[in-house]
Structure formats: C-alpha cells, structure tokens
Write a structure and sequence with these properties.
By secondary structure, the protein is mostly helical. It is 72% helix and 0% strand. The chain contains 9 helices and no strands.
C-alpha cells in the first residue's frame, strides 16, 4: 500500500528542490540532463571510471542525489504517490531512463550490482512511478536517436 502523502512529505520535497538549486548541483544536473546522452553501457562506464574529471564528478553527484531520494521512497520516508505526481519526480525518471537500457551491462562490467538499485526499486514499487517511467523512457529513446544523428 502506498504511503499517504503528509505535510512532512511536502516539506521534504521542497527541501530536496532547494538542494537541486545549489550552484554545483545545477552544473551537474545540466550536464546530466542536457549533455550526457549515452548510446551504450561503455559510454556510461567511460565517464564513471574517469575519476577526477568534471563529467565524473557531475555523474557521481547527480546519481548519488537521486539514489538518496529513491532510498527515502523505498524506505517509506517519502510518499511515492506524491513524488511520482506529474512535475515532481520527472528529473529522476529522465536521468534513469538514459542509463536503464544498459543497466545490466553496466552492473556487470563495473562489478556494481547495486548501481541504481534504489531508483529501480522506487519506480517498480509505485504504479504511477512505473507508468510515468514508461512514458519518459519512450521519450528518452526518441531523443537518444535524435542525438545520435
């Protein structure tokens, strides 16, 4: 049964939004949403293993942020019903949709079986999360083809 949204959930979402506005996080989010368009697992692994580069730092910052948020959902701290409402959790779904098609291979090649596991669990435990992710994944796949050209 989904957790019924509370005022505390709304407050947490507003606090998470404020964290997203921090200048370094904005740079990382811009890179992750606008500039990073992996075509395969190796594109992801290349950035993930390029320690010390701005791209690696951006990837780690964004991925760990969304993993933290997803852990709140998975553990019942944050209402999945509220988080997956239209306009609230779009960015997490969008970032995950960019890597999800390659996730099995990424986990195998990096020996990181827990990569994105909280995000994956948060989405899969929520009916609206699954529905919204399916729509965003389809849109990202279309955008990926455009970026490829």
């Amino acid at each position: 049964m989904p957790k019924k949204p509370t005022h505390a959930d709304a407050q947490l979402i507003l606090q998470l939004y404020e964290l997203r506005r921090e200048p370094e996080m904005r740079k990382a989010r811009d890179w992750s949403t606008m500039k990073f368009w992996p075509q395969n697992a190796d594109d992801c692994i290349k950035v993930a293993t390029a320690m010390g580069t701005p791209e690696n730092q951006h990837m780690r910052q964004v991925n760990s942020y969304w993993d933290m948020v997803a852990a709140f959902i998975v553990n019942g701290v944050l209402s999945d019903e509220l988080f997956f409402s239209p306009g609230v959790g779009n960015e997490m779904l969008f970032v995950f949709a960019k890597v999800q098609p390659f996730l099995r291979e990424i986990r195998e090649k990096t020996q990181s079986p827990m990569a994105f596991v909280n995000v994956e669990k948060a989405i899969s435990k929520s009916k609206s999360g699954k529905e919204r992710f399916a729509m965003i994944l389809k849109r990202v796949e279309g955008m990926r083809k455009t970026m490829k050209s």
